[in-house]
């Protein structure tokens, strides 16, 4: 049995290969400009899965380049008509369709005010692309499943590629080139324990930290969209500040613990939650104690979350079918959501 969601998730490696083979001049030129004239301020403009991808890029920018990045509340422009200072600003608009008015309007506003504007978008002919100064197409191809998969993965890769060119980081650029092979292996990694553990679940915490928080947010959204599970994403630090009061015997948690500085704390949290009676699923590299969901390592640890979400997408699609749901027909949702 198959679905559009499953087919498109399996197309992600090919989509990433296309993305990495295209637009080198644009990424190189943008990176050179950002190095020569660093922004005074930076922000992302996105909704839903695209916002999670933007969060990942923002974390890389802050961690690697030491520059703060804000996620724009679009209503500041679309509803409150705030006259935001555009001097020295760079904005990145992330979208699959490029159609939503509340992404287009801020991008037009910032560009008119003299900011550098970038559209990371699957539809290079969309209104968002037309509004931006720089257009970085995702090359993901047509995506008809309501639940975004390959376009989200392409957005993660595009964000990492922007950062790599901004830093002129040869090691990260080389690791990005190997991602299609990594994702191909990740797409066929056995995550069946997730299906077995969550087939009867109706609530869930999804935990990440650092570079993995963005994929925890995305995973929580997909649990809601295609499985009808009330899933909430938390940082491994934040979950201790109140949410853990909900933990009881058998309460399910999915913890993304890829390589990197946050891994040790996430593994310690997972063990603490087990002692409290939670049913904890840990996604971590093969050989990690307590890990049931194997992660395929990328060529750089900062790219491991991309491999993790590739494996997750196949598992959550299988979970939806195991729960008797059609992953291509989530309730009340459409492929393109137009917000103002």
Attribute tags:
340 residues; alpha/beta; Rossmann fold; 10 strands; 5-stranded parallel sheet; 14 helices; 2 domains; single chain
Query: Any idea what the radius of gyration is?
Result: 19 Å
**Number of spatially distinct domains:** 2
**CATH uppermost class of the largest domain:** Alpha Beta
Q: What is the approximate shape?
A: globular
Give the percentage of residues in beta strands: 15-25%
Structure description:
The protein has 340 residues and is of the alpha/beta class. The chain has two domains: 4-184, Glucose-6-phosphate isomerase like protein, domain 1 (Rossmann fold), CATH 3.40.50; 189-322, Rossmann fold, CATH 3.40.50. 46% of the residues lie in helices and 15% in strands. It is built from 14 helices and ten strands. Strands 2-1-3-4-5 form a five-stranded parallel beta sheet, with helices on both faces. A five-stranded parallel beta sheet has the order 7-6-8-9-10. β4, α7 (127-131) and β5 form a beta-alpha-beta unit. α4 (48-65) packs parallel to α8 and α8 packs antiparallel against α9 (170-177). The longest helix has 19 residues, at 304-322. The two termini are 38 Å apart. The model has no long low-confidence stretch (mean pLDDT 93).
């Amino acid at each position: 049995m198959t679905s559009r969601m499953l087919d498109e998730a399996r197309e992600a490696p090919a989509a990433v290969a296309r993305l990495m083979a295209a637009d080198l001049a644009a990424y190189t030129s943008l990176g050179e400009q950002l190095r020569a004239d660093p922004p005074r301020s930076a922000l992302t403009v996105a909704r839903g899965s695209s916002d999670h991808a933007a969060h990942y890029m923002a974390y890389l920018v802050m961690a690697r380049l030491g520059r703060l990045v804000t996620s724009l509340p679009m209503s500041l422009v679309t509803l409150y008509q705030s006259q935001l200072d555009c001097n020295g600003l760079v904005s990145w608009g992330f979208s699959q369709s490029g159609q939503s008015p509340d992404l287009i309007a801020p991008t037009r506003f910032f560009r008119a005010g003299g900011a550098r504007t970038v559209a990371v978008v699957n539809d290079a002919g969309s209104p968002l692309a037309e509004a931006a100064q720089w257009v970085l197409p995702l090359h993901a191809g047509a995506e008809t499943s309501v639940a975004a998969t390959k376009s989200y993965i392409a957005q993660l890769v595009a964000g990492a590629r922007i950062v790599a060119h901004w830093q002129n980081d040869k090691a990260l650029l080389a690791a990005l080139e190997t991602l299609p092979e990594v994702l191909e292996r990740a797409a066929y990694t056995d995550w069946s324990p997730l299906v077995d553990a969550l087939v009867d679940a109706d609530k869930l915490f999804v935990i990440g930290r650092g570079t993995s928080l963005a994929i925890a947010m995305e995973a929580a959204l997909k649990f809601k969209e295609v499985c009808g599970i009330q899933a909430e994403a938390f940082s491994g630090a934040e979950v201790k500040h109140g949410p853990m009061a909900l933990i009881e015997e058998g309460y399910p948690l999915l913890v993304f613990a890829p390589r990197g500085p946050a891994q040790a704390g996430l593994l310690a949290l997972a063990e603490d939650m087990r002692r409290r009676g939670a049913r904890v699923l840990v996604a971590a590299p093969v050989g990690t104690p307590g890990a049931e969901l194997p992660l395929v390592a990328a060529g750089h640890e900062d790219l491991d979350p991309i491999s993790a979400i590739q494996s997750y997408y196949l598992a959550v699609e299988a979970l939806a079918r195991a729960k008797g749901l059609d992953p291509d027909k989530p309730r009340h949702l459409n492929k393109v959501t137009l917000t103002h």
